[in-house]
């Protein structure tokens, strides 16, 4: 399986997963279960498979968020809603959102969910805490919820590998955000808002990257662009491996495209995930 396929399949599984952050059904489910505000809902819902972990664990695994933003939500989130109660509602809510945005999702899910589950079970969990915790959840009986859970596990598999590569290059979470902005993958203003970094800390990280020759005057240098491209390429290569169990991966990709296009209407563009529109 090649890196190009991994990039293409990410562009369709990410929108299907990401309804959990943006769709009204999912935001309401977080509120109903007891989580307070958007960020407690985000950290609590995404982190629930890990159990009632510390803020430090969320900081390490989610990567790129300001520690203060996390610590305003965790561990308080677990006082308002147990991980078990969150897990009972998050997949159901995502399935409702997917059914609303793409009425044909049931037919897609019946075929695609088992195939994606094969990929999940073939993936290496070593060093991938978010992936492993999602992989180990029971597979839902509802095919649409099962589809969402599989896309969630696989996007976390990709993300865990990406974080390992960033840290291997000596980049902090903040520096990774600055570099992504400097190459034009995300907007700096959006990252300030979504990841919680104040301007003075952002500027200090930019100065640190400038000392490494990666950024100059807010723009990535040739060396910075080359580093970012290497990281993205290697991320794709690592993410591609488990898809090798599929007999016809391209058919799975094509099956998911219409649903992903519909789900993308729930997502802002540009977005902090660096996700482009489904082509």
- Quaternary structure: single chain
Query: What is the first-to-last residue Cα distance?
Result: 21 Å
**Which range does the strand content fall in?**
under 5%
Query: Which series of helices and strands comes N to C?
Result: HHHHHHHHHHHHHEEHH
Mean pLDDT: 96
Low-confidence stretches: none
Morphology:
globular
Helix content: 55-70%
- Give the count of structural domains: 1
How is the largest sheet built, in terms of strand order? 1-2
Number of distinct helices: 15
Number of strands: 2
What class would the helix/strand composition place it in? mainly alpha
Main sheet record: 2 strands, antiparallel
Over all CA atoms, what is the radius of gyration? Answer: 18 Å
Organism: Actinomadura chokoriensis
Pfam family, one: HTH_67
Protein name: SalK
Quick recap of the structure?
With 279 residues, the chain is mainly alpha-helical. It contains 15 helices and two strands. The chain has a two-stranded antiparallel ribbon with strand order 1-2.
Verbal overview:
- This protein has one domain.
- Helices cover 69% and strands 1% of the residues.
- It has 15 helices and two strands.
- A two-stranded antiparallel sheet has the order 1-2.
- A hairpin with a 2-residue loop joins strand 1 and strand 2.
- Helix 1 crosses helix 7 and helix 11 packs across helix 13.
- The longest helix is centred in the middle third of the chain and has 26 residues.
- The model has no long low-confidence stretch (mean pLDDT 96).
- This is SalK.
- InterPro entries: HTH_67.
